[in-house]
Amino acid sequence: MMQPQNIKVASVSEHPSPLIVATWSFSARGCRKAFQDLTTGSSALDAVCSVAREAEADPTIDSVGFGGLPDATGKVTLDAAVMIAPERCGAACAVARHLFVTDLARKVMERTSHVMLAGEGADAFADAMDMPSTDLLSPAAAQAWRRWRVGEPIGRPVDAGPSSGQLFSSHAASARAHAPARHPMERETPHDTVGVLAIDRARALAGACSTSGMPFKLAGRVGDSSIIGHGLYVDPEAGGAVATGSGEMVMGVNGSFLAVECMRRGATPSEAVHEVLARIERRFRPQSHQQVALIALSRTGEWSAGALRSGFIVSCAQASGTEMLQPQFVMHPEEAVDGPHPADAGGKS
């Protein structure tokens, strides 16, 4: 497969520590910053929350936080989850007034006996925790919604660089135009999630996941990102996984939980990701404009990433530096891979 300029296929060490891996290239800056603290002794949980918070505050990322595109009514709602173990996890969804929703999910985990808070209750809890409230709709997102509402194109140039946090391209717009309609207000669009996994100097694992959800979704829709076992799952006995892409497909197979369970029974991270994507493909038969990608990290520090289609990029921060990398495998690459397939090397390229 042809490589995008300056983006190489991941070549991973089996036992890196510490390490941060995250979905999409727009997470690279946050990974770089968080890794500096990770090397001096901060926890994996601090690291993943830091990466997510960086994306949430960036108005140029239109799938996470302040830059996130709204629902069909023009309202932005945010979803997030954090996890370090089955008994230590927290989530918040349909949050309408508080930007740093990953920090809110962490407070749910650390300050309550619950796992998830939703909607007005989640915002009220954030108020009680003295978290600042704010208007979540950015000017650019508001403009995109107004154009979407009247059917105007909202695409970006197809040559936007790999570090762009924007969703739309002319190719994606064309695919959406030919997608079957399911509801008068529902026009499916591709969407990205910032999902982060980390392992710290103490060999502890943590994960976080944050999103503004499907652009122009039906009001009230909640996807996989904030649901434990769907968009995120971490078990220190086996490993962790995060998912991004078409959330309903991930939800249908409990994607992140399935990946971790595969590693529990002895699968490599690469084999685990492949199993999830193969099951999604078998059950849902995704259309060409639909993407799902996963990152899996074993309890020993081996990791892998895979995607249904080309275009997915992983950010990785480790001792050798911070890089943007192509996943180890793509189920349906647009062009043939040159040389051995990464999956043939036991999960490492």
Structural class: alpha+beta
Radius of gyration: 18 Å
Order of strands side by side in the largest beta sheet? 1-13-12-2-6-7-3-4-5
Number of domains: 1
Estimate what percentage of residues fall within beta strands.
Answer: 15-25%
**Overall pLDDT, averaged?**
85
CATH class: Alpha Beta
How much helix, percentage-wise, in residues?
Answer: 25-40%
Distance between the termini: 14 Å
Describe the structure.
The chain is of the alpha+beta class and about 350 residues long. It has one domain (about 10-155, about 185-345): (Glycosyl)asparaginase (Glutamine Phosphoribosylpyrophosphate, subunit 1, domain 1). The protein is built from nine helices and 14 strands. It has helices at about 30-40, 45-55, 100-110, 120-130, 140-150, 170-175, 245-250, 255-265, 270-285, and strands spanning about 10, 20-25, 80-85, 90-95, 115-120, 195-200, 205-210, 230-235, 240-245, 290-300, 305-310, 315-320, 320-325, 330. The strands form two sheets. It has a nine-stranded mixed sheet. The protein has a five-stranded mixed sheet with strand order 8-9-10-11-14. The radius of gyration is 18 Å and the shape is globular.
